[in-house]
Please model this.
Amino acid sequence: MNKTTVKVIFPAPKPGRPTWPYIDYDVADRSKQVIATLQKSLPQIEFSADIYTDAEQASKALKSEQGKFDGYLVYLTSMWTGVQEYVAENFHPVIIADELYSGSGGLLKVNSLIQEKNLPVVTVASSDFQDIIDAVRLFDVMNKMRHSTIAVVADGDTWGASKETIKKTNEIFSTQVVRIDSAKITTLYEQVDSSEANSWKDKWIKDAQKVVEPDEDEILKSARMYLALRAAMQEAHADAITVDCLGLYYANRLVAYPCLGFFQLNNDGQIGVCEADIDSTLTQMLMQYLTGRPGYVSDPVIDTATDQIIYAHCVATNKVFGPDGMANPYIIRSHAEDRKGASIQSLLPVGRIVTTAKVCTVSKSFIVHSAWTVANIDDDKACRTKLAAEVDAERVLENYNYPKGHWHRVTVYGDCRRDLINLARLYGLDIIEEDR
Model:
């Protein structure tokens, strides 16, 4: 993947002009300090810096470099130059950061322009430089999305992988989508090495807290399906895979559910998502590139009596803190709706903050809320994994937008709400905060 490149722009007043921070402030020296800090904190990004005294000078220089950078950071070392307004209106994605007491008035002015024109620009006004680092890191996430591929296993259009969704995925994120039909997966399934499949079957059974419904033959089918999906990803050079699992299994076009395969992919730092849901796959990719942690796609259930939201599904990781993090217990169950196949009931960590979100490509919107995990619900109804979390349930119920986000939401452990909202802004998405 190409290294992320970022242009850092330092507005500066002309010599002898009295203004904040003070007359003849050494912007050149300060720019060297800022770039050194950025390079040390974000070695995966290549930085290029320039100082401009007005919009005309910035225009001449930046137009000659157009298309060269993955993002622009305007670091406000001065105020009334017009540079930040010019960059905000003409180059994207852009982050504008204030050096307090240097560009503060200029930041407030350009922020008003951003709101008035609904520009895809993020502003940072903080004395903690880490907040600027966190914002700039988003350019690297966007670059990874730009060079990523999603494999969709489906026979024709589905609700989650329509032609319009695929088109919008490329338009918004520049992420490629590759279609694979069920016949190809069946061929790969038949070519799987039996000894390798048996090894995975044995590992899953050994590591499980217990196995309830499926027998070993069913779990072996799941292992073969996992290896078939992994081979399909390798052939397609895909970074993520999503399968029309319900439709294809009910139509007898899949030999086994892919639930355990997705479980393993997500545990290993790859991305496996059910139901050919491209929007959920994109959301999980954003989360994983941002945090290094897998997302958990679910069908939320809202309970206003307990002020809880219960995230329910038959696919779940048991390594919510990433491949090198702790593993929580899991149980191997049948798939919930038809009581067939094999799936995962993951007993996910409680007492933790989680961020739940959903990209909606067709409506160009981004949905988000935060919650605090409190319990794993053991109820025979509905999907096997049921993670309960405290939230303003009445507010989420009022704000839940099914047409834009469908039912699914994607949950990641940790508080990354602000970063995800900033990413959505940089992509020009309409932001819906369900719990506010």
Notes: The radius of gyration is 24 Å. The mean pLDDT is 97. The chain has two domains: 4-145, 148-433.
